[in-house]
Specification:
By secondary structure, this protein is of the alpha/beta class. The protein folds into two domains: 251 residues, Rossmann fold (3-Layer(aba) Sandwich); 121 residues, Pantoate-beta-alanine ligase, C-terminal domain (Pantoate--beta-alanine Ligase, Chain: A,domain 2, 2-Layer Sandwich), CATH 3.30.1300. The chain is built from twelve helices and ten strands. The chain has a seven-stranded mixed sheet with strand order 1-7-6-3-4-5-2, sandwiched between helices. It has a three-stranded antiparallel sheet with strand order 8-9-10, with helices on one face. Helix 8 links the parallel strand 6 and strand 7. Helix 7 crosses helix 8 and helix 10 runs antiparallel to helix 11. The longest helix has 18 residues. The two termini are 36 Å apart. The structure holds adenosine-5'-triphosphate (ATP), pantoate (PAF) and beta-alanine. The site of beta-alanine (BAL) has 2 residues, from loops.
């Protein structure tokens, strides 16, 4: 089953979807080398290798649009003309089950699902992994085709109609896009949200995300757009942007899809390698420990933080016994913030409003690399979050 919540009115939507007795929920299916900003700019250096887009020769059961925006618009216009609706799932490719959950959610409420695949340079900082970000076009297409075959009624109202995989010059037609904070360009900025948490670690990240999503929404004009709860601050930001710029679309947030051991699926998990991968679920574990405090009625931020840190430190001590003492990690932040704007909650969570508990943790390169892969390791930043859902019967809490 696909569960979603709308950030427009999270309290109300969560209550109605989860029922009055729901206290917490795991909302179920809800990079970088420098990019040059000057003369050496080569816009399509990083483009995913995609085949040509002749509808007649296309081996795909959906249309592939690359740089021909007017054809895409014509096709999209026909969908409206026929009384159908478009749900857009923006991605950077390297598709996994988390992305597929978004597509299923889109197919459940729209006749036509558009998936965009675009590794957006402006959201990568100058020292991040733009050049090495996984680009897996053939594999992505296989997954989309397999999923599409299953999206027949009653499993899905709609199906994937189009994949939009533009080149950088198409998305940024005038200036070479900049990843520098002071760089020139036409940008959408949403502050102060874009400067906090993920934005503090990645100063131009949300400017890049807001800018590219504005462009995608302008080009495709979807009735609804689908984002993953895994990137919760991104979802809050998009919701805010849609409201502030009166963009005529509805934002849906789809619950995080996880591996069996709790690790949130992410395209960048491939960077972890075997030994770091075994330790990576600790971030989720730490957030769960904080969530347990809330579940048991301890609402103070300090107690939730304490529980998360205690979990991390206990797990760190166990690494030697697990033969994993070469794996090192650093906590970047744990945040307890309100659901609407992600403002930090200073004191206690109001159980009538709930909260988002989120965190970021850096997995450092392994201390005693034993393979080529381990010798090449770079730090991998993991993010995750849990929604502390509002509680209807506040009296159940001990004070
Ligand atoms: N595990 C997941 N569950 C639900 N949605 C997800 C998950 N992972 C990614 N998404 C969503 O898919 C959309 C596209 O994300 P993206 O292509 O960046 O994948 P990603 O796995 O988040 O990659 P990265 O490792 O770069 O963060 C975003 O809305 C993102 O929140
Ligand atoms: C929304 C997005 C596709 C914009 O590039 C990206 O930030 C992502 O994949 O989450
Ligand atoms: N999943 C969000 C895209 C990024 O981290 O660059």
């Amino acid at each position: 089953m696909v569960m979603m919540f709308s950030l427009v009115s999270p309290l109300q939507t969560l209550r109605s979807r989860l029922g009055a007795h729901a206290r917490t929920c795991q909302l179920y299916p809800f990079q970088r080398a420098s990019i040059s900003t000057s003369t050496s700019y080569r816009p399509d250096k990083h483009r995913a290798a995609t085949p040509s887009n002749s509808p007649d020769t296309s081996p795909y059961p959906f249309r592939i649009f690359r740089d021909d925006i007017s054809s895409l618009r014509k096709y999209r216009g026909e969908i409206t003309h026929n009384g159908r609706a478009v749900g857009l799932v923006p991605t950077m490719g390297a598709l996994h089950e988390g992305h597929l959950a978004l597509i299923r959610a889109a197919a459940a409420e729209n006749s036509d699902v558009f998936v965009s695949i675009f590794v957006n340079p402006t959201q990568f900082g100058p020292t991040e992994d733009l050049a090495t970000y996984p680009r897996t076009w053939d594999d992505d297409m296989e997954k989309l085709i397999a999923l599409n075959n299953k999206l027949t009624f009653p499993n899905g109202l709609g199906r994937i109609s189009a994949v939009f995989a533009p080149g950088v010059r198409t998305i940024y037609p005038t200036l070479p896009p900049s990843s520098d904070i002071d760089g020139a360009g036409s940008f959408v900025t949403i502050t102060p949200l874009a400067n906090r948490l993920e934005g503090a670690a990645r100063p131009t990240f949300f400017r890049g995300v807001a800018t590219v999503c504005t462009k995608l929404f302008n080009i495709i004009q979807p009735e609804r757009v689908y984002f993953g709860q895994k990137d919760v601050q991104q979802s809050v930001l998009i919701n805010r942007m849609v409201r502030d710029f009166h963009i005529p679309t509805e934002v849906r947030v789809v619950a995080t899809t996880r591996e069996e051991d709790g690790l949130a699926m992410s395209s960048r998990n491939v960077y972890l390698g075997e030994r770091r991968r075994q330790v990576a679920p600790i971030l989720h574990g730490a957030l769960r420990a904080a969530e347990k405090e809330y579940d048991e009625g301890r609402l103070s931020r300090t107690e939730m933080f304490g529980a998360a840190i205690h979990f991390l430190e206990t797990e760190r001590l166990k690494l030697t016994d697990r033969g994993l003492d070469a794996v090192e990690f650093e906590l970047d932040y744990i945040s307890v913030a309100d659901v609407e704007e992600m403002n930090e909650i200073k004191d206690e969570v109001d159980p009538r409003r709930g909260a988002i508990i989120s965190g970021a943790l850096k997995m450092l390169p392994i201390k005693d690399p034993q393979t080529e892969e381990e010798r090449a390791q770079k730090p991998v930043r993991l993010i995750d979050n849990i929604i502390l859902t509002p509680v209807i019967n506040v009296d159940n809490f001990q004070h």
